[in-house]
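Handout for the seminar on molecular recognition.
Each group receives one record of this type.
Step one: identify the two inputs.
Step two: read the structure output and locate the region that could contact NDP.
Step three: write two sentences on what you found, then compare them with the reference statements printed after the record.
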Amino acid sequence: MSSLSGKPLGGAVALVTGASSGIGAATACLLADEGAAVALVARRRERLHQLAEDISRQGGRARVVEADITEPEQAYQAVQDTREGLGRLDILVNNAGVMLLGTALHTTIEEWDRMVSLNVSGLLHVTHAAVPHLIDAAATSPRQVADIVNVSSTAGRVARPSSSVYNLTKFGLNGFAESLRQELLVERVRVSVIEPGTVQTELAQHLGEATRDATLRQVSGIEPLQAADVADAIGYIVTRERRVAVNEMLVRAGDQTW
Ligand code: NDP
């Protein structure tokens, strides 16, 4: 798939949630390299500005959209801002997420709520606001296709102790995405899930000390994926010809058993 600019995503606009670090930041850079203008959505404004500068130094185009997507109004405004500032919306990457591991006995209800409100409700807020624009993009753009890529996890396929609510959010996301895929395929809005294994990001830094140490011990024997590896897979999904729909991609670290 190539555009007038010669880049696969030239003329397209992408919105990436959780763009201030990890997989989201790497994905935003990759999509910009492929020619898309990218809306960078997260709460940490300074990080987003730094990333926007980096993208523009590389010849790309990015727009900072500061938003807490757990707030429905802010999520809605993030999508509107993208439309108004960049003119359209062709690709949504639902990436923002948090993983607060711990057993039911030792996790607080606030931590469970935090995971549900970002990994589920936040994702729904953005998706609901974006769907009409994506349908429009698929009908009117030169690509004749639009994309929603949902960053799930191996935790969306394999349940493990200390991960019950994280599993709930990611298993739930996979079901949501499959239903949405069937709804939107007639509109040529492709819906996919990507399920990364262990990736070296800030994700584990949100854990309490004891759980973080246990988690890091568990993965200490394996070489983790880099955020760019996951971005690469997302880039593959969204640059396929419109006749191709890569609906699911499981990308584990090479020596990860689960
Ligand atoms: P990071 O912690 O590096 O990134 C999480 C991102 O989510 C940050 O950019 C953060 O930005 C954003 N975010 C958090 N809260 C909000 C909010 N309320 N509103 C908007 N944005 C928010 O972790 P990863 O890059 O690893 O995680 C990205 C996704 O990948 C998650 O969905 C995670 O579940 C998934 N994943 C990660 C794996 C891993 O091993 N790292 C493995 C499998 C899946 P800010 O704080 O600035 O708002």
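Reference statements: Residues 17-18, 20-24, 42-44, 47, 68-70, 95-99, 118, 122, 151, 153, 196, 198-199, 201-203 surround NDP (CB under 6 Å). Residues 195 and 219 are 17 Å apart (CA to CA).
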